[in-house]
Amino acid sequence: MKAGYYVGDYTYEVRDIPDREPEKDEVRIRVAWCGLCGTDIHKFQGKNGASIVVPPIILGHECSGIVESVGPEVDYFKPGDRVACDPSYGCGKCEWCQKGLPNFCKVRHGVAKGFAEYVYPPEKNVYHISDDLGLKEAAFAEPLSCVVHGLDLINIQSGKTVVMYGMGSIGSLMLQMIKYSGAGKIIVVERESEKRAIAKELGADLAVSDQEIEELSKYENFNYVVECIGLKQTMEQAIKVAGKNAKVLLFGLGDPEKPVEFNQFEAYTKELSIFTSYLNPFATERAVKILESGILDTDKIISAELNLEEIGSELKELNYSRKGKVMVYLSREN
Ligand SMILES: [Zn+2]
Ligand SMILES: [Zn+2]
């Protein structure tokens, strides 16, 4: 079968590797779609994603597909089932797993590398999807589960004002989820006017530039600020514009070489709470339910549908990734 590898040194390669039958509790899934994630781009650029990267590695972790065969210990899946995957799991034994915080597991297992024709995750990482949910949309289960976990942390109260930075693919999901959580007013901060227009279509009350938000923050008390870009400059501004008693969620993946600086005294007088969000513990099942409910518009977020070979030049040029979500098609079933 074909698989898309990052082989190190800014190089991507499609390799032919053997397919195999599933063992024990493994579910062998014929991958239909897999999203290209910001962390795949980070890995290609030689930075770490959520964990340390040692090439060669198969990229992709946001996949959906159809069960082709199952291992002898599998109970709940059969060939033909339509599914989405959670791409990693905790060992279940270490102190962090025992505390109910598997995202900090000492030996986290990565499974379901979705830039491949087949993946073999254990049954506990596989989720049934309804017949009404398309497989392309189901591939959003993983990024959405990360958004769900981030929102779990800040617990948005109905009627409050939320500022959200960045209309990339994560921001576009985040915005819709913030809307769904009952926010009273949502202001999106986005540099590109084209994306500001999309923010309005997806539920923002106002979409402004970074200069405008600083001005607005002088008159309005923002209760929540959610940053979905990960740039030092925007993360610092997110903390700066937050109002009194506000919660700030730094969701974007920052650069470890460029730590954020902020005025602690100013933050103190506002009694700010600053949150970060790591991975997606216990959120995939809910992400699938949300996608099934049909409240999210994922079509509007997709900027391109590419095959495994075409991903090579996209990783270098990022032509479509700058505009939205790139979806990789494998079997392309829906
Ligand atoms: Zn991802
Ligand atoms: Zn563990």
Can you give a write-up of this model?
The chain is built from eleven helices and 18 strands. It is of the alpha/beta class and 334 residues long. The chain has two domains: 2-140 and 298-329, Alpha-Beta Complex (Quinone Oxidoreductase, Chain A, domain 1), CATH 3.90.180.10; 147-276, 3-Layer(aba) Sandwich (Rossmann fold). The strands form four sheets. Strands 3, 5, 6, 9, 10, 17 and 18 form a seven-stranded mixed β-sheet that branches. The longest helix has 14 residues, at 141-154. It is globular, with a radius of gyration of 20 Å. The mean pLDDT is 96. Residues 37, 39, 61-62, 142-143 line the site of one zinc ion. One zinc ion (ZN) binds next to α4.
How would you describe this structure in keywords?
11 helices; alpha/beta; six-stranded parallel β-sheet; seven-stranded mixed β-sheet; 2 domains; 27% helix; 18 strands; 334 residues; Quinone Oxidoreductase, Chain A, domain 1; Rossmann fold; binds zinc ion; globular
The class by helix and strand makeup works out as: alpha/beta
Distance from first to last alpha carbon: 20 Å
Low-confidence regions: none
User: Main β-sheet: number of strands, strand sense, barrel status?
Assistant: 7 strands, mixed
